[in-house]
Amino acid sequence: MAFERKYSDEVRTRSVETVLRRRQDEPRNRSIIREVAEEFDVGQQSLRQWLARYDDGSYDYGDDPSGAARYAGMSRADLIARVEELEQRVHVLDEDNRSLTRVVGLLSEQLRPSA
Description:
Layout: H1 9-25, H2 32-40, H3 44-56, H4 76-111
Helix pairs in contact: 1-2, 1-3
Coiled coil: 76-103
Organism: Microbacterium betulae
Protein name: Transposase
């Protein structure tokens, strides 16, 4: 069984916030994740997973059940851009869902025994 290292919620939150802040401050720096992982003594892959969870909205901020902490410090323009991005994702997912529903309907009709 593989060794699994646990990190505190504070370390997770601070490292994710540090990456996000540095991405804004240093957009050309391609080694931010490695540098922040070293700074907080966490695995690069763990940090990447936390960032992916942050991006998809499933990141748990511990004592903040609303998740509002993830938007702290963002400008109004950034918040509006994030809302537009999420609305676009919802639109794409809705289209995908409708397409999949149609495909399932067609397949189920083909699988029905003919009378």
